[in-house]
Amino acid sequence: METNECQFDTIMKQFFHITFAMVTMILMLSMGTTAFAQDIADETPSIEVSYDQAIFEAFQTYLAATDTLPTTDEKNRLFVDGFFSQYKDDFGLIVIKKDDGSEASPQEVDELFQRCITLLEEEEAKIITVQNLNQENEDSSFLKNLSSLEVRQLAIRVGVIGILVLILITIVALWAKAKKKKKPVADNDMYATDTNPSNSGNNEASNDVIIRKKTSSVLNKQSLEDVVNNSNYLAINCADFCTDTAVKTMYIKNTCIIDIYNMYAEDLRNPDNPKEDGCMVLGRWVHDEQCDEYAVSLEEVVFPGDDAVFAEYELDFGGKIKVKVNEKLRKLRRETGLQYDLTCWVHSHPGLGVFFSNTDSNLHLIHKHPSHPKFLTAIVVDILTPQQELGVFTFKHDMGINSKADLTQLYSLEEWYKWAIGSRRNSVAIEEHYNTLDKAKSRNKGCYNIQLSNSTIIDIDLIATSQNHEGLYFVHGFTMQQMDQTSIIAVKIDNAETIVDNELIGCFMVVTHRSYPTIKEEVANYLGRIGFVMVYSVSDGILTTIPVVDNDLCADESYYGEQPLEELKIWTRRKR
Predict the structure, then answer these.
(1) Is 309 helix (H, G, I), strand (E, B) or coil?
(2) What's the CATH architecture for 189-425?
(3) Residues 6+ apart with CB under 8 A from 426
(4) Would you state the pLDDT for residue 114?
(5) What are the φ/ψ torsions at residue 172 (nearest 5 degrees)?
(6) Is the CATH code 3.30.360 the one for domain 430-575?
(7) Bridge partners, 348 (sequence order)
């Protein structure tokens, strides 16, 4: 905070100096401009011609009465000769009386004649010079036509515009300079952690830890209204596992738990050589200002990139996960209009137990939010314990971090996973599925509804329209019991017989013509494990659903459901 205030004071001082210099320059400019305009007005030449001799005064009057002047020597002589014609006698000779009454000699008359021509030429030259000077003054500047007040007003306007431009340039330059001084943080160290149990002593963060500077801010709506009392979220009261925690309640989405569980599935199959693994979890948070506590949700899992390094006592998330987290956050905020952030990070201690090392604490500080640091949580799992024990670690009210000694309860990832699978099945929206037996004439309670999800219909279309669709495909999902009726929910179609999270519930095949004996022979080995068979006929484009009753393929066609595949595709497009 003090650093920001110092930077602000420095900027204001620089701004004051620049403004003062600009105002001084504007005043000098306005004064100089006014003086320059006055000088131009003073230097404008005036033509004054006066003659002592009566002849010259008469000639001047003659010039003034003439509209135009000659432009050549011959015309000038004719012009002067016309003037002197009034002095000619009856014989055409010029007779001029002097002051003393005597007549001027021919030589004196000729000299006077030449003087008049010279006067005419000088008059012409002066007029042309004045015309040129006036034209040059008009072209070079309009200031001589302005008053002193107008000149000052113009100078002030130009100065104000100049000051504004310079202020803008100064602000941009200072901003760029301040931004350039920011020091980058190495991405490779940002998500590195150490799970060596020898580091699990004091869990308080070291003073030497360099905390990453974050620029994220709270821009979107903060809300968990759709999460509270939602059956798809596992609500955990943090007071149940810790006495001092800044996080009051956690809401963990069922799909998030399933993703975390599946992340460790390969390690569970190879317990003799387990590897550490981890991920980041995005969600939302709400701050209770009265008690300074948070409610957070854990919703979307982001897995590390291919640059992550996993080894014994070490888990390096790599640098690519930062890019993936930022991209996912932008997408969630844009699509929902809600404020999503990193609310949890997960890693494992296979065979080492649940604890939070010093390196874990340091990494927890690096991941915290810049303005609301205490809502961040961490989950540590020991996947080699019978129930996959896990602990939740949070900030205390005083910004300390809970250690293993502070935990009063551990949880089980296995139990969380069972709850997640059950909650997802119980919360299925039937209206979002297509019932292929809806138009069947007869219904069996053991296979009363067969509900296809959007993704299942898309799988059917992809297989049916592919070049190589021969062979048997497997439908995965789960069953739901409603009163005495069984509904089968289809989630996915795959060429694998088993997949994670779902059961084998049916079979699917593409044929040219439907033949009951051929279909029964193809699925004979699975009749004890499946509830139906779906058959798509290429010849007529019809999808036929045949229930399995008492472990046998139903032969009564009144129990069959039939729909054109195009009808299912149109329904899917409308739902999407």
Answers:
(1) strand
(2) 3-Layer(aba) Sandwich (3.40)
(3) 231, 480
(4) 77
(5) -65, -40
(6) no
(7) 381
